[in-house]
Design goal:
The complex is a heterodimer of chains A (181) and B (410).
Chain A: E1 3-5, H1 13-16, H2 19-34, E2 57-59, H3 74-78, E3 84-90, E4 102-110, H4 119-123, E5 129-131, E6 146-147, H5 149-156, H6 165-175
Antiparallel strand pairs in A: 2-5, 3-4, 4-6
Chain B: E1 25-30, E2 42-48, E3 51-58, H1 66-70, H2 79-83, H3 90-105, H4 111-139, H5 143-164, E4 173-174, E5 177-178, H6 186-209, H7 212-218, H8 226-231, H9 237-240, H10 248-251, E6 264-266, H11 272-295, H12 315-320, H13 322-334, E7 338-349, E8 352-363, E9 368-372, H14 374-379, H15 382-385, H16 391-401, H17 405-409
Classes of the chains: A alpha+beta (181), B alpha+beta (410).
Amino acid sequence: MSVIQVQRKPLTFAERTYLPQVFGGLMITLRHFFGRRVTLEYPEQRPEIAPGYRGVPTLVKDPNGREKCVSCQLCEFVCPPKAIRITPGEISGDGPSAHVEKAPREFEINMLRCIYCGLCQEVCPEEAIFLQNVYSVSGYSRDELVNDKEKLYQLGGTLPDRHFKWDKKQAAASASPIAHP
Amino acid sequence: MATEYTFPENAAKAPAAAPDFGPERMSISMGPSHPSTHGVLRLQLELDGEVVTKADPVVGYLHRGDEKIAENMTYNQFVPYTDRLDYLAPLANNVAYAIAVERLAGLEMPPRCQATRVVISELARISSHLMGLGAFGIDVGAWTVFLYTFTEREKLYRLFEELTGARFTTSYTRIGGAARDVPDGWLDRVGAFCDQFLPILEETLALLTRNRIFIDRTADIGVINKEDAIAYGLTGPNLRGCGVPLDLRKDRPYSGYEQYEFDVPVGSKGDSFDRYLCRGEEMRQSVRIIRQAIKNFPGGAWYAEDAKRIFAPPKDKILTSMEELIQNFMLVTEGPQMPPGEVYFEAENPKGALGFFVVSKGGGVPWRLKIRSPSFCNLSILPKVCVGAMLTDIVAILGSFDFVMGECDR
């Protein structure tokens, strides 16, 4: 096992006069003074957000405009601070996504509770909820900071889909000889 | 004419008599909102003039009941709460917690996962020590150091943001793996950071190490001898500053630390200056470890692939296969399945040994989770160290301890 003892050499006479430190310190300050600036003039200048950033959670639609959430309530369950509230609903009628059967009637994320941990995005089996790059949230009242379904879709927009799982499912169902109920 | 007022019987009254200190003593409260108590520590001091005759740390202002919270959620749901223990090194907390629970499950992590954990633990150590040094400097009147350490820390936070998606509350590890793999090119950027960091570190430390004002403020202040340090359960740089070469990365290696070469810095006197020197040297050693780790960074799996009842299947599979979909639902709702038993694991965190004692009765929720927080144990020696020091020295002693109340009070 390698142990090193930190060195404490006694100060030399020159160092005891403070002067070398004063000038050394001033030199460092001067160099930084003329060096590259490290600060940003926020909010005029915005920092670059790395991909995969965990900002405000949003709901997304697939490229066909179908809302992806099927209200399985897994995110509501996993959310450590219990910020998500979902009221499940049904998709009625003969629309193009009627075979999905379920969609949230209400979907609320309370941004006063959310801790941006990203567990909701991680567990979502439909890739419907995403933490995107909005990071600065403010409002005049508590109600304003509870994002409802409409706000969440507006924030989320549309993201590319890799699987189109429900479309495939529908195609498979209509191709199969057994009549779909 | 003044009406006579009588207090109601049940009214709150002032204490009958103030504690009797004699004519010379004075009792003051330092904190909980004092700038040099680094958060919400309150010191109940008894002074004889400028000399402290008694010091009582009052902790608990930031108590959130994390241990109880853990009993009400699955193992993975608790990860965000570990961020908020030592909030200056959340990644190191994540790693310590994940390894503790994995030990309970008897899981061995693949090399890539272990190496990632080593790299992020050491990066967290650097960022925590940078913050500690900067704040220590401010405490004793050296503002400049703080500016430069914060510039470097910001670069580290950019790296954390890229890796985990958040600067501060990283929540990176999961039981049996991590939230995501290391992004492309990230390790190169870590290497680049190390290259430019070392000269700046030397320059920044040079502002303090040979500075007579700083030495006058810290040398021979808050001296702790070896026996006391061990008896009070100090850990981390505070213990090593007293000359005890205990480093859990060496003594009880975890996550593959035995593969890396590094030195354990120890102090000779056990004063505030030694603790500062140890932190400085530890940063150099951390850079050494990171360089070794990224030089031979292993490929392969970044999570435990065999642990089907602990780590979630890949997202692609969840979306396309019914088996994995059900597995995902089971994992989230019931939690990672642990065998009954108990485990205690300590990791060498920037502040000292962070220990998790997990008792499981099987299933996905801990029956009891105890957190041994280094800051709490390190603070326990304050009543002994502070006695006899001047009031201004208290600031230097607190600064040299580099504690975090989020972890102390948990």
